[in-house]
Design goal:
- Chains A, B, C, D: Its main location: cytoplasm.
- Chains A, B, C, D: Pfam families: PFK.
- The structure is a homotetramer of 319-residue chains.
- With 319 residues, chain A is α/β, with parallel strands linked by helices.
- Chain A has two domains: 182 residues, 3-Layer(aba) Sandwich (Rossmann fold); 115 residues, Rossmann fold (3-Layer(aba) Sandwich), CATH 3.40.50.
- Chain A has eleven helices and eleven strands.
- In chain A, the strands form two sheets. Chain A has a seven-stranded mixed beta sheet with strand order 3-2-1-4-5-10-11, with helices on both faces. In chain A, strands 7-8-6-9 form a four-stranded parallel beta sheet, with helices on both faces.
- Chain A starts with a strand and ends with a helix.
- Chains A and B meet through helix 5 and strand 9 of A and helix 5 and strand 9 of B.
Chain lengths: 319, 319, 319, 319
């Protein structure tokens, strides 16, 4: 193995640049050449490929987004698309790849490995919804952005004694809501993994008000329902002077937190080591503070489990 | 004059606490006693009034919101409400007041002055829509929060070559949009004070894309239309992979910027000096870097003018 | 057990307020009464003790420092001091305690337990130098503050092609330096746990410059030597236009990161659960993402081990 | 005039990139070609000059530092150096220049104008020490960074009832200290423009302590004396558990505030307009919210005057 390629795929996440940097530097340190592939699998197929030097990844670790750009490219699910990609790998003499992205990106990684091009997947998504990893690259930053917003809403909630319904990202998983809810001091956290009863919540808000709770925040995972709809449901049970806020795409951007940078750096270096060991078709994770890897095939049969102890914790300390 | 009262009214704004601190400390420094009134005019009428010491306003300058709480209280437009308020002022021996809030709060200030209780108004609103002042308390912080969000959206816009329509606050005035647009490097700024043609904008976006502009942000003042509606209109003219984001109430909160803290401190101290001079019925402003005051009556006949040179500047440097 | 007390001791750390909030709320949720003790062991001895309600810990989770104040109080090492403290516990009817602080605070916790007052210790220190816990409360925030500063120094280092020697906190342990170094993209990390040779470092800086590395940052743990002394040593081997910067006490303050808030909340609730189980003399930790506890006695025989894999990682990816 | 050049000189300041962007985009908008000159006057003499496109300045407005790099180059004071620079201008066909930097940079701008190359100076320095402008590019960001640090020190100062002596930047001018002091809620501000008596200050600190003031911050302009020396002097008069902190070069970096970005954008566009009007030898400023220009020659006879009303304001509201 002499040359490796690297691409980012699916939704962008803070820390992707830190991962690209680590992959690039580690590979160069081990005597490999590195090629960047723009726009994910779309760029692979189109041959949008260029050599990456140590210098190219300088001053990148602190930047949000991905400087290799990302794109969704469902066509790579077809053999035709894959063969076009492999043609490009041959043309550029690339022997193996690192792919940073979400669940969907791993399918392509598996196909490339099957075609003889060892490919390692790194979990880059703010949603934290990938199996066999406690944390994904970008999750800590997204939580941090959400909590920063919740802190600001607390100021105005306190001043006006309002109730805010804050919709945070996480289509299928409640992780962002759970972490942002506990860290933001939310009155209630609503996640897809737990049932809820709006009437009961309205009752709690009412009692909270009566006990002098001035700054009530309800954190809602987007996978459950829309904030505006939740607010409307809530308003049926009383006048809570409530407001709905959707944090939205802001959560995808921003300079990655130190935790995300360190995680991305560790995972990126580890991916190169796996390739050097002749491995492929693996997804890198962090489990119990250790960097691990699992067969991508196994991931498809598994489901990420959020830390629901946070839900129960919040119930007992949000008063 | 021995005792002054202070209240915050209308929508809360970052820097209100800094203003309360400055009023309190300056007044105590000049030998006065100070009383805080909770919940604006509603609290005045209800007698929710308590003595404020220098210590009470310690560790407050950096906090968002208002620790005196705020509320809208239309009933204070009636003489009945005013007389109840005056009864409370008599009861607590308060001779004069400082009121921090938006346009609406100034009506109450004028009525109290007419009843013999000199009252000075400070412009506390993130909208910057008050006449006779270049800047209101809270505006700089709101712009800062909006620009921070736009910077984050730039990350993800660049990574995916998306177009974002970002709705910022400012019902009647385009100030937040103008400042956040220029500072955020927006492609376009849409404000109530200037006409626009969505078809032309779509054309510009299309051309920008063709010239390689990867991170297009359109900043939209909420007074013009909803971001989601704007996006739908835009989408009629092409596929821009556009997204709508509403920054919302987050812009009201957060630790005030140094500029807002300094402005609030200067204005707060000045308000006390005006009261000591036996003045009332005045609104404090900052014009050409100098703290000034104007008859509140004159404000009602005037209209705030945003700095539209920012609009033209942006047209020439957003490429 | 009906009443528990809580105090913070030693150097303050971001997240202490989140821990106090969690202890208070969990205890109240379980039917206990809670008393806050100001100024650590000094306040215990002096009887500076007051009841804490759920309301008292509202709007605290996001605040840096500790609203119970902290103090060093070596006199508590003597039996005399301890007995005075116990007298106060009797007076206020407090049966058990939670103590948040560093290593030193645990001695007092052990003594109180020996005297029959079950006491649980929580690791509150930015240094991360406590055995049997992967992370202490405050560490993530301190790293975040340090990295924020390093990012800013990168801007000016790049603009002027300067070398910065940045001294970060951590007297006995290199943890802050290791994390901030990797996350900050440092050229070199200097920690007490690893030898270094300034002449070799000077050589590396020289070679880095020649290869076009414009923004060199050397992160130095304060336990090794002073930044100014390091800079002087470095300057003996060449003209690197170097500057020394000591981040200092800024690293102790600031709003805690979500990670610190969640950690503090989990640990605080867990401490109450241990007391309810009739346990004492234990130190709470987080190991492999699980909240754990160990005999404080065992801690005294152990030594915290930083994650030195970060050192090696940085050597291979800092170019 | 067909081609203009742009360089940054002296100490870097946040907002320089925003100014470069505005100059470049405005010039291109007006049909000019733009050349970037790296490393200030040193790069001009060395011919480190390259064409700048609209794309080159994309995604720059939010970055700290200067992507054209900066350097001090005293040799440009000599005619010999100037003639070498002019040779390069001829070679690249550059007719006029914009120079962003501090006081020193303006001498070069004047000399180039005298040689027939109209040059406009923009005030880029965090110190705010330039005559005929109320604010320099970078000042607002530096104050913001300083206040952020002071807020963090407040947390730990409150928790431990310590006194912090915080040294902020500003060699010859007290502006950063005055703004950061008022905005940071400092107990005292020490600037070169006002005398002070350490004994009296110690007395004030003592009295403050007795009145319950827990978080005392003394903000010291670096031009007065070193924080460590001040602390030592202070300690002669009592035990204040004081700490000295030097904020240092961190104040030079970081993403520019919206205010700095807007100011830099306005000034950059205006500089191009002046060149198009055939003007040179002028320094751009902002006075009373209006963008203005003055003969550079007049600047050399003038002295910047800080807003000392802030000093008096702080005396009356810091209790």
């Amino acid at each position: 193995m002499k040359r490796i390629g690297i691409l980012t795929s699916g939704g962008d996440a803070p820390g992707m640049n830190a991962a690209i940097r680590a992959v690039t530097r580690r590979a160069i340190d081990k005597g490999l050449e590195v090629f960047g592939i723009n726009y994910g699998y779309a760029g692979l197929v189109a041959g949008d490929i260029f050599p990456l030097t140590s210098d190219d990844v300088s001053d990148r670790i602190q930047r949000g987004g991905t400087f290799l750009y990302s794109a969704r490219y469902p066509e790579f699910a077809n053999v035709e698309g894959q063969l076009k990609g492999i043609e490009q790998l041959k043309k550029f003499g690339i022997d193996a790849l690192v792919v940073i992205g979400g669940d969907g990106s791993y399918h392509g990684a598996l196909r490339l490995t099957e075609h003889g091009y060892n490919t390692i997947g790194l979990p880059g998504t703010i949603d934290n919804d990938i199996p066999f990893t406690d944390f994904t690259i970008g999750f800590d930053t997204a939580v941090s952005t959400a909590v920063d917003a919740i802190d600001k809403l607390h100021d105005t909630a306190s001043s006006h004694e309002r109730t805010f319904v804050v919709e945070v990202m996480g289509r299928g998983a409640g992780d962002v809501a759970l972490w942002a809810g506990v860290a933001g001091g939310a009155q209630k956290i609503i996640v897809p993994e737990r049932d809820f009863d709006i009437k009961e919540i309205a009752q709690e808000v009412k009692e909270g008000r009566e006990q002098g709770n001035k700054n009530m925040i309800i954190v809602l995972a987007e996978g459950v329902m829309h904030a505006e709809d939740f607010k409307k449901e809530l308003d049926k049970y009383g006048d809570f002077d409530s407001r709905a806020t959707v944090l939205g795409h802001v959560q995808r951007g921003g300079s990655p937190t130190p935790k995300d940078r360190v995680l991305a750096s560790k995972m990126g270096a580890y991916a190169v080591d796996l390739l050097l060991d002749g491995k492929g078709g693996l997804a890198v994770g962090v489990e119990n503070n250790k960097i691990t890897s699992h067969d991508i095939l196994d991931l498809f049969d598994s489901k990420h489990k959020p830390d629901l102890s946070l839900y129960d914790l919040n119930e007992s300390i949000s008063r």
